[in-house]
Structures are given as C-alpha cells and as structure tokens.
Amino acid sequence: AKARGRGRVEVHDPQTTSTAADRLRLLGELRRGIAEGQLRLVFQPQVRLSDGRVTGAEALVRWQHPTRGLLPPAEFIDVAEQSGLVRALGAWVLEAAVRQAARWARDPRAATVDVSVNLSARQLTDPGLVAAVSAVLARHRLPPHLLVLEVTETALIADPDAATAALAALKDLGVGVSVDDFGTGYASLTYLQRFPVGELKIDRSFVMGLGQSDGDDGIVRACVQLAHAVGVRAVAEGVETEEQRRALVAMGCDTVQGYFFSRPVDADALQEWARERRG
Length: 279
Ligand code: C2E
Ligand code: CA
Ligand code: CA
Ligand code: CA
Hints:
Blueprint: H1 2-5, H2 20-35, E1 39-48, E2 54-65, E3 69-71, H3 77-83, H4 86-106, E4 114-118, H5 121-125, H6 129-140, E5 147-152, H7 153-158, H8 160-173, E6 176-182, H9 189-194, E7 199-202, H10 204-207, H11 214-229, E8 233-236, H12 242-251, E9 255-256, H13 267-278
Parallel strand pairs: 2-4, 4-5, 5-6, 6-7, 7-8, 8-9
Antiparallel strand pairs: 1-2, 1-9, 2-3
Helix pairs in contact: 4-6, 6-8
One calcium ion (CA) binds next to strand 6.
C-alpha cells in the first residue's frame, strides 16, 4: 500500500500510506492510550459577530502519544472509526467535554459557553447514543442547552432515517445539533428542512476563499441565507483573516471560529481569552 499511495490523491489520507500492520499497531496503542488517560481536549472559541462575545467552544481531541508527542485527530480518527474503537474514543470525548462544560457552568467567574462535541458517523447511528448523552448530562448536571453535537452533513445523508430519529430524540433532550462541514456533502434542501438542527457550520474550504473568489463569496452568502431561511444559526469555521471576518459580518453570519480569533487551546486558556474579550 505504501508504494501505491505515493504521489496520488490519497496522500492526504495518512491511512492509505501505512500498512495493515502499522494500523493494527496504532489501534493497539490507541486502545491502551484511551484506557491509560492519554487523550486530551483542546477548545477553540466561537465568537458571536454582533457583540464579539465568546458564546461557545468546540472541543477537539488530541492524543498525547508516549513516544510520538501530541497527535492531531488526523493521525488516529480514521483508524478508530474503521475499527469500532471510535465508540470508546467518542465516549471519552463526550464525558470529558461535558465535565468541562459543567465546571464552567458552575464557576461564577467563568464565561458561560456551550461546548460543541464532534460525533463520528458511527456514533450518530449508534442506537445507544441518546441514552449515553442523557446519562452523561445527568452525571455532570449540565443544562442540556450547553451541549452542542456536531454531525457532518455526510453522516446525516448516509442514513437519513436513522439520523432523523436520532436528531429528534436529541432535540427532545434539549441539546443543540450543528451540521458540520456544511456545503461539502450534497445535503438536499428537503433533508435540511427535515433534520431538526440548530445551526449550520459552513465548511472552512469555502470560508478560505472569501474576498478572493467570487464563487466562494457566493457560496458562503448562500449558506448564510439558507441557514436563516430554515430558521437556524450560521456559523463559519476556519476564519483566518480580518478580511474574511468583515465579509462574514456583511453577509450576516452569526458566529465565527478560526485562527484569526484563536487556535484551539486548553480549557484554562479558553476562559482567560473569553474574559479578556469581555473586558
Ligand atoms: P472539524 O470538526 O472541521 O474541526 C475543525 C478543524 O479545523 C480543527 O482541526 C481545527 O483545529 C481546525 N481549525 C480551526 N480553525 C482553523 C483555521 O482558522 N484555519 C485552519 N487551517 N484550521 C483551523 P483538528 O483539531 O485537527 O480536527 C480535525 C478534525 O478531526 C475535525 O474537523 C473533526 O472532524 C475531527 N475531530 C476532532 N476532534 C474530534 C472528536 O472528538 N471526535 C471526532 N469524531 N472527530 C473529531
Ligand atoms: Ca456554539
Ligand atoms: Ca467540527
Ligand atoms: Ca468542519
């Protein structure tokens, strides 16, 4: 697989350039790593454009590997997803994110922010998902509206019936749902109307071209308008420049997230950053 992957489109996918033996070893290490507490969460602030306040934070997983250092999800999420280990990983992330959100909610000096958690496609269609979410909220006594689950457009349309049922149950629980990577997965307008979601998160690939490509400007503007037409918030991810921020303000985008504001940081740094902006 190593030789075949070289120089082809798959080079972006680290999985295809590694052998089955490599993947198996990684999997074993990850299973141990989860059990031994090697996973970490970092948080990236979400800023409301109308007043510049931090209203939320996206939890992003990292793996403190014993020899390879701090690994980003691109190094291990796919392997986890293909193997079913993503259930254990997803459960750890949910627990840790809700624990943190509850700590912030209780701390009178902390800015109250909702915490967004990424769900894999497998988690979304896992029949135990809703009970697991409900249990973790109860365990940490987190008000449900302070948890937002991010599901990709691709995961939604892979099994629209299962997705609709899961989303409806999550909505009943009171947790928020965000459609991640919006614009990349060919969700039809019919589905958009039928999925009970609270926000659309416009994919970074479109945000990147803002102010540089008329095409991308048009797509982002259309996504914002679409979100508002179906009564949900528009969030833009991957905002890296002031020019992009200004374009999003002009388009009426509600919330933004990206390196222009802050990289993902640890929980304490996120609160510090939020406090500074509050003045
Ligand atoms: P995503 O959900 O689209 O998350 C956004 C990714 O873009 C993050 O990468 C974030 O660090 C990065 N990012 C944020 N702002 C900027 C920016 O301004 N410019 C650029 N170039 N990048 C920016 P990260 O943390 O490496 O995560 C990559 C992907 O891994 C995520 O994409 C998500 O799909 C997945 N992932 C992360 N954490 C979890 C998790 O806990 N569970 C699951 N199932 N997937 C996760
Ligand atoms: Ca949010
Ligand atoms: Ca996300
Ligand atoms: Ca995304």
